[in-house]
Amino acid sequence: MKAACFHGRHDIRIDDIPEPQLRPGAVTIDIAWCGICGTDLHEYLEGPIFIPAADHPHPLTHEEVPVTMGHEFSGTVSALGDGVTGLAIGDSVVVEPYFVCNECAPCLAGHYNLCTKMGFIGLAGGGGGLSEKIVVDRRWVHPVGDIPLDQAALIEPLAVGHHAFVRSGAKEGDIAFVGGGGPIGLLLAAVLAAEGITVIMSEPGAARRDMALSAGVAHHVIDPLAENPVARVLELTDGAGADVAFECSSINAVLDQLFDAVKPAGVIVNVSIWSSPAKVDMQKLVLKEIDLRGTIGYVNDHPATIALVQEGKINLEPFITGRIALDRLVEDGFETLIHHKETAVKIIVRPHGE
């Protein structure tokens, strides 16, 4: 079958590889669509990062480069392994793309997203969504009912936003300030709005600001190049500040703004992955008793995330800005997202090329 395989930095190839073999307790999925994630772009530009390098196999998959890429995917169940229940051939599904050890303290405590050996399907090995088929353990497969499969490919990054929402402790009626309107910032805002939270977003890109407003995921959008985001947040909150704030840019100036824009005893959640250490104004954290929290991935978030879409509280269609075939992955996918990120939000790939 065809698969997009990472061989090295700037070296992603569409290879012919063997189809995966079904095993007990697992299901075979025919991939419908797979999204390109910012993590995939970092691997392409700077990797291997999360992908295991040559002679350094992942401790759970025992794989190393080349590996099949793609972890934001949807598809249809085409075969069931022995012992699988709760699914039927033909079901539309998405995958929670984890490898975990089930033995470390976080796993035993139920925090499997913090597994000390954790890896992701499509990065650590185990196949990937940028291929025609994949075999995945039943535990990680979630039915999506009648959600269109192109939109279902966005469930995985939407679950990242849902977990960040859960980590924040935000509740209906709160005001949230989101710093950064990239794909994760927009999808996080969609979750917040669906949960009855007023969203103020700061984003320099005009197309992404327009998308936040037209998709109805932000109630107020700030151009930080034209006005002071902190002053605007204070104005919109009658001087009180936001109840919660989310860092979605990995830009230190944005993080600094969150400390000024959040109310005393407020919560800041860092959602983005930083390529270099951030500087934190500890004096502001102390004097305002700010609670600074991290978030990574998702843990038991997929059912609630899927329900938000099934119930019509979130429409994922506006966030899809491109649909391409697998053989155009680098030219029309990776390069577009790298060089035209102001207008390209989420490009999804159809491995079968139809």
Sequence-ordered SSE layout with sheet pairings:
Blueprint: E1 2-8, E2 11-16, E3 26-35, H1 38-46, E4 67-68, E5 72-80, E6 92-95, E7 98-99, H2 105-108, E8 119-120, E9 133-137, E10 141-143, H3 149-152, H4 155-168, E11 175-179, H5 183-194, E12 198-202, H6 206-214, E13 220-222, H7 229-236, E14 242-247, H8 252-261, E15 262-270, H9 282-287, E16 291-294, H10 302-310, E17 320-325, H11 329-339, E18 346-350
Parallel strand pairs: 11-12, 11-14, 12-13, 14-15, 15-16, 17-18
Antiparallel strand pairs: 1-2, 1-4, 3-5, 3-9, 3-18, 5-6, 6-10, 7-8
Largest sheet: 7 strands, mixed
Strand content: 25-35%
The H/E string reads EEEHEEEEHEEEHHEHEHEHEHEHEHEHE
Averaged pLDDT: 97
Structural class based on helices, strands and sheet pairing: alpha/beta
Distance between termini? 15 Å
Q: Work out the number of β strands.
A: 18
How would you describe the overall organization of this protein?
- This protein has 354 residues and is an alpha/beta fold.
- Helices cover 27% and strands 26% of the residues.
- It has eleven helices and 18 strands.
- The strands form four sheets. Strands 3, 5, 6, 9, 10, 17 and 18 form a seven-stranded mixed sheet that branches. A six-stranded parallel sheet has the order 13-12-11-14-15-16, sandwiched between helices. It has a three-stranded antiparallel sheet with strand order 2-1-4, with no helix packed on it.
- β12 (198-202), α6 and β13 (220-222) form a beta-alpha-beta unit.
- α4 (155-168) packs across α5 (183-194), α4 (155-168) packs across α10 (302-310) and α7 (229-236) runs parallel beside α8.
